[in-house]
Amino acid sequence: MQTFRALVVESSDPQSARIRQASLDELPPGDVLVRVAYSSLNYKDGLAITGAGKVIRSFPMVPGIDLAGVVLESASAHFKPGDAVLLTGYGIGERHWGGMAELARVRSEWLVPLPEGLTLKEAMGIGTAGFTAMLAVMALEAHGVDKTREVLVTGAAGGVGSLAVALLARLGYRVVASTGRLSEEGYLRSLGAAEVIERSLLSAPARPLESERFAGAVDTVGGAVLAGVLPRVAYGGSVAACGNAGGPRLETTVFPFILRGVNLLGVDSVMCPREQRLLAWQRLAQELPKPLLEAMVRTVELEEVPALAQAILQGQVRGRVVVRLA
Ligand code: NDP
Q: PANTHER family of this UniProt entry (predicted)?
């Protein structure tokens, strides 16, 4: 394959994303060449493809912060042609050509062998969003979240949110899902949410301390919603902060931290250390019920991605979007 199909963002012009043939010699350096089977659409890809966020560091760029596929060529002792692999983060789709192309050349140390029990498509159904949700769950577990109280997920109908609801419910937590789309209540309950609440209940200005309700929270929204979550976390509880779909600024007080011992836990999927990365993927393969994953995934062709990139930024995408390359 001397040339291959790719979605390319040619320049900082927001209209410059287009599908074209790319050549092998355009690919960045790396010791493994992967035939990409699937990528997925994450919020960050929306920012990259539309130019709404300064995600892309050099042009032209193939977006796609994750991919799953099969090794075609390898100069690494750890991978051989035919191996099924997945990759999230490490700057692919930002500073290194990413997953929205039929081929990707990457560094072997970024690759995760496809865990047993997952197909390539399922791996991208999970994708960066699901990996992040699992990291958030692991962070809460490490801080001993009290199972007798409720756990909150914000931005619940989105990608990270849907996976977090499903994983936490599966683990036996009573999950409260916060959403701006109450029309998705049935969907969220089907993933395991015990209760669905309207986002504005959290985003309205809160007192420094409200009644203690949640033992923990996975927050994908940030901004006013996170500010509304912290005063409602029970004594010793924890909030795993993973996103900023509702804004990056956090205006709060120190009282939840100094009077209730609340923990604010940062979650980063991009540079997550390898040992934790492998563990999270192993757990995802074993613990995420497949029917729930299927229920939250929609598969699209590369041509549909630019329009969906706009939609995901407007909070109009439900669950996960898998992009088919092969
Ligand atoms: P999605 O767009 O799929 O989900 C985001 C959800 O947030 C939406 O579905 C919506 O949920 C809610 N939302 C959207 N806009 C607003 C708004 N203006 N105000 C309040 N809520 C809003 O995105 P992803 O799941 O892919 O990503 C979620 C967030 O997590 C993003 O900020 C992303 O950048 C971040 N992220 C961080 C990672 C990390 O490594 N830390 C990795 C992956 C993602 P609803 O309709 O239910 O209210």
A: ACRYLYL-COA REDUCTASE ACUI-RELATED, SHORT-CHAIN DEHYDROGENASE/REDUCTASE
